Amino acid sequence: MLINTYSAASVGIDAVIVTVxxxxxxGYDFTMVGLPDVAVKEGHERILSAIQIxxxxxxxxxxxxxxxxxxLKKEGAxxxxxxxxxxxxxxxxxxxxxxxxxxxxxELSLDGHLRPVHGCLPIALAAKNNGFKGVILPAENANEAAxxxxxxxYGFEHLTDVIAFLNSEQPATPVHVDVNELLSTMAFPTDIDxxxxxxxxxxxxxxxxxxAGGHNIIMIGPPGAGKSMMAKRIPTILPPMTLxxxxxxxxxxxxxxxxxxxxxxxxxxxxxxxxxxxxxxIVQRPFRAPHHTITDVTLVGGGNNPHPGEVSLAHxxxxxxxxxxxxxxxxxxxxxxxxxxGHITVARNKLSVDYPAHFMLVAAMNPCPCGHxxxxxxPCTCTPAQRHRYMSRISGPLLDRIDIQCHIxxxxxxxxxxxxxxxxxxxxxxxxxxxxxxQTARFRGTSIHCNAQMxxxxxxxxxxxxxxxxxxxxxxxxxxxxxxxxxxxxxxxARTIADLDAVVHPEQPVSNILTAGQLLQAIQFRxxxxxxxxx
Length: 535
Prior knowledge:
The longest helix is centred in the last third of the chain and has 21 residues, at 484-504. Residues 262-277 have low confidence and may be disordered. Strand 12 (301-302) and strand 13 form a beta hairpin. The chain has 22 helices and 20 strands. By secondary structure, it is α/β, with parallel strands linked by helices. The protein has 2 domains: 2-166, Ribosomal Protein S5, domain 2 (2-Layer Sandwich), CATH 3.30.230.10; 194-241 and 283-530, P-loop containing nucleotide triphosphate hydrolases (Rossmann fold).
């Protein structure tokens, strides 16, 4: 008897439907084809044990199993449940009536319990896009898959529960998650706030501009000046994630196995209102802060079985590189392509995978090895040659891709002791959200979401300096020898400054014209182009 069951395999952050064909004939043998890896093949032993311990007698047959498409490598234990149901259906223990309507996935333990697997969100989206009625999977993954609207998601604890459902012996309730409630109630972290920051008004302004336009920023200053403290508070002023951003970010964490598991539906999770559902959808913008000892592959992704790196895990959020000059030169250089293109391509012998990588790069570093170059209170003990070697660890092409470069001074005693809090994150965030709303209206109908993502054609359209601003920009280009990329990025930053000015002065209409003041402020943020830290 020939039976088809359906599952899916993750490719990048998407999923491809896999048809599992099971042919049972008289005899006693087991053959599996279709590029299964070792974990898939070992699933046969788990399946036999799970079926036996569950009290089910599987007739002795010659099973031939094909996993199509045959040229796509099948990896992991997520096919256990699909293969088990296929063999049970081929011997008529499970009815085949519902098998064509659902994608089935899950790892089996030896006693038949279902264990959670990776990549359930992309698989649920693939089920919806390919016309399946729903998904059958482990209970711990149900809330993750249920964020996809328009399909039925059933989470089960044991193999026997799946069999009872497919044989219409035991009714089950689809898991439901209220996505809009998650987005509205869990948008911002609350344990840290910019109100904790004392002084540093110029740097706070630079960070606000960076957040409003999605610009990359680097802060250079002595130890203890507050670089890391302010960087960690950037997520508190970023705008809330849209549903499409939340889904795309969650897909990355899902295939990486970094999405924390949620309580099972049997524990009262069907309504989508109980605690624990916060792990089914990432609604806070990611903040990734890898250590400077990170390897190239861990940073950008890859490996024998390609997986997303830190640049993709920071998608739609912040990638914070503290002590930038301490990172390996090779690791930093691989950032060039994702910073420019917004995605990273991992190529292997028989596979090429694209991972999204639209992130806001926030970097911090000391100005020299001792950390006190330019500090009026602590003399620098480094020689010019040492400072030059230190700064040369960061290549010019990488710095060119960082829109805002600002120096940060140590905070004096009076600023530290002031009783009044600084401006709260909520107030800054309100301005950032309004500035992003202007950009959303500007780029409506395109794939652009913020000023930092504008291609050159849009820069020419929306960033038109007036005569005075044009003169100032020409002088800066000639005086500092700025590159064409720096020219575009100055205009983009000036565009964001103009948007923030429109937020503060809503009575003034938003235009494509940039003033000299806005251009000068943007030029001021190219400090590494205007200073020689090696002297």
